[in-house]
Amino acid sequence: MSKIIPSIFNDVIGPVMRGPSSSHVAAASRIGRLIYMSSQNGIKEAIVDFDINGSLAESYDGHGSDIGLVSGLMGIDVTDEKVPKALKIAEETGLKVVFNILDYNAVHPNNYRMKITASNGEVHNWEAISTGGGMIEMQKLDGVDINICGDYYEALIMCTEEQSDKIRDLVFTVFNENEFILENSNNGKYIFEIKYAKPFGEELKKALDKVDKEYVIYLDPILPTRSSAKCEVPFETAKQLFEFAKTSDREMWEMATLYESKRGNISEEEVFNEMSNLVDIMENCVRKGVKHNEYKDRILGQQSDMVDKAKRKNLLLPNELVNNIVRNVTAIMEMKSSMGVIIAAPTAGACAGLPGTMIALKDTYDFPHEEIVKGMLAAALIGIFIVNKSTFAAEVAGCQAECGSASGMAAAGIVQVFGGGNVEKCLDAASMALQAITGLVCDPVANRVEVPCLGKNIMAGSNAVSSATMALAGFDKVIPLDETIESIYDIGTKLPLEFRCTYGGLGKTPTSNRIRNQLENIEEE
Q: Which residues are listed as membrane-spanning (predicted)?
């Protein structure tokens, strides 16, 4: 099966969620949700393994993988206020959950290995990974390879070698509206994975009921944008966009609506309206965060309201845009750390740099809502190019993949709003912003996504402003965006593991360890 073409609303902007990390809370929730769908009788036990050499072994509790997975296993939506209480709810409802740290040579740092027992005693073993920004891949079911990302309706048919011939004939005869049919086997077990763009009809299910098999599992999509085998997009790289723009008078934001309309088989107006809805959520997050945000179990108290207070006392430098960026970014980060509703943009750890900056443009220069939506669309298209050539996962490539990506995206968004959406200048601004953050590590203090994450999100915004200024002035970016993105991925994968969202840098200082112990005592109270 070929690589899935990324979507703005699947891979870049979203999901709408609660929690400190999209790679942990949102991704784990989606993994749990798919397993929850697979078990019609409910789940009574989950034994979850994390590899000792991966990121999750150190961060699964502080970053929320535990509450994300368990809430998903219970069918709780990732925006539900019950998410922070998922472990307690599981205990009260009789769902037994065990987390183990083992050495089993997992290839990916965000690997989940799970033994799930249903209420009727049926047992299945699943393996999945979180790939960044809330995206996932279910990779194994009962030891056999699968490939599920949540973008199709799926039927998984497990059978023996003896049963496989009849099922193969049935599958290719009856399921003729499929997008893909994948077949894998291991130790005499066969899985046929059928992907559909629409729900499976009762006639198809009845046809499967009549053949001998081990079991069949049906899954619904969990991503907002569905995939299609026939999907074709006008460009997949910055270079391709640049060439496309030579014969088009579209602004950068219009290139984004064109791309996503082709990717999701929807109208460009629908793309614009969906981004408009997301901008509303982002702005509400800022306004709510500044008003009042108290939460016991975190490192930092409320600070976002301090900016306006200091401004009224003439204590700040006279730079209203930067001051508003600091305030807005801090407000969003405080909403995140207090388990409020946020949007991963492109991730939860980097949820504030891009939206905080775009809302600051509105606050400072009174731009209308529609212009901010256009800026977000331009920014999102940069994210598409990053997904195609790199990653949003700090566990894979450090914070340059998260706050760094957000900065490059925000730079393009600013150029869209101020520079009339010139495609070349948007691409140049993004490249210069990304060049300035190469090598940025992920070293969270006290196993929380707060410090130095707040400063790095603010840096993402201020770096975006500087880079947009250079692009609008006509500075030479020297290295094209595609090459810059490829370099960031190369640098990131060569960073030591301890600088990729585990236990290094600021995260292993004496002060960090002291704060972590204090927070763990709060959790036990």
A: none
Contact at 8 Å (CB) between 112 and 118?
no
Cα distance between residue 25 and residue 43, in whole Å: 19
Instruction: Report yes or no: 212 and 168 within 8 Å, Cβ to Cβ.
Output: no
What integer pLDDT is reported at residue 524 of this predicted model? 47
Instruction: Using alpha carbons only, give the angle 264, 269, 271 rounded to the nearest 5 degrees.
Output: 40
| Distance, CA of 161 to CA of 155 (rounded, Å) | 18
3-state class of 254 per DSSP? helix
Per-residue pLDDT, 525: 47
Q: What is the phi-psi region of residue 314: left when phi exceeds 0, alpha when psi lies from -120 to 50, beta otherwise?
A: left
H, E, C per residue of 13-74:
CCCEEECCCHHHHHHHHHHHHHHHHHCCCCEEEEEEEEECCCCHHHHCCCCCHHHHHHHHHC
- The residues of the chain that CATH labels 3.30.1330.90 are 8-151
β-bridge partners, 189: 160, 186
Query: Helix count (H) and strand count (E) of the chain?
Result: 19, 12
Q: What is the pLDDT of residues 13-33, one digit of tens each?
A: 999 999 888 888 999 999 999
Element (H, E) at 401: none
pTM of the full structure: 0.93
pLDDT in tens, 207-260: 999 999 999 999 999 999 999 888 999 999 999 999 999 999 999 999 999 999
Task: Determine whether domain 8-151 maps to CATH 3.10.450.50.
Answer: no
Q: How many CB atoms lie within 10 A of CB 379?
A: 37
